[in-house]
Amino acid sequence: MKLNKCNLYNNYYTKINCTKIYVDYPNRRVKIIDIDSISSETLKKIIDFSVDENLDKVICNCGMKSIEIFKEAGFKMEGEINGYFNGKDAFCMSYFLSNKRKISSNLHIEELLVQQCLGLKDTFTYDSNKNEYFIRDAEEKDIKEMVKLFSAVFSTYPSPVYNEEYLMETMNGNVLYKVADYNGKIVGIASADMDKDNLNAEITDCATYSDYRGKGILSNIIYSLELDLKKKGYITLYSLCRAVNPGINIVLSKHNYKFTGRLINNCNICGTFEDMNIWIKNISI
């Protein structure tokens, strides 16, 4: 998520050798933002900086022209996001600063889940007549209810979705939030974090109250997000979702997203560090 004045975790942007990075303490990582002038020397300084800050992962989405520089510096490619840069591919490069951080504890379960999801690929059909709820854009008046829902679903989350100021700022920025409204109550949420420069959007912040799961709510929110993003001219949609959670992985596969990798112990979510599966979809066709 893009965050400016509302900084609840003491995270911050800074530059090393003119390369912009994002220092992310709750997720114990550094994200390299600017790759235009990346070099081996700069990567070494970023790694040293991360050690000094007691962080244990460095991540970057880089283009083809930079991939060898990252590999030579010891980065591992964990996946790719096809079409991330205005239709050109991005490679998800990671550098691990601790052995614990680079070892997945649920890999076998996660692999079985992906295989299950692939068997359901491209099977979503939309039927508005079956819905007891309706999908709409979130508004500022919804924020208190959104915080309540996020707090009920996630004990920890990579971004501060429990904070009203954060949701207000992102809602008025580059994030399109949609909610499922059931008789005036918000029972489901998902969002699209839009990168207008690169014409990609991340499908994220997916949450549904447990009593309302299994009704197709998340599927229909994602369907509505896709329609809006296609109208806006976006090329690539992607989602980084919890690799151990069947629901969201199944939904994305049903919507014809393609599995393209897994980010090991990528973020602090639901009380621990978890692997995140990468799913991508081209909507420009």
Automatic annotation (TrEMBL):
- Which keywords does this Swiss-Prot/TrEMBL entry list? Acyltransferase, Transferase
Show where the N-acetyltransferase domain sits: 133-285
Which Gene Ontology MF annotations are present?
N-acetyltransferase activity
Which InterPro entries does this chain map to? Acyl_CoA_acyltransferase, GNAT_AblB, GNAT_dom
| Pfam families registered for this protein in UniProt | Acetyltransf_1 (PF00583)
Under Enzyme Commission nomenclature, its number is 2.3.1.-
Give the top-level enzyme category.
Answer: transferase
Q: Does the keyword Transferase apply?
A: yes
Name by which UniProt lists this protein: N-acetyltransferase YodP
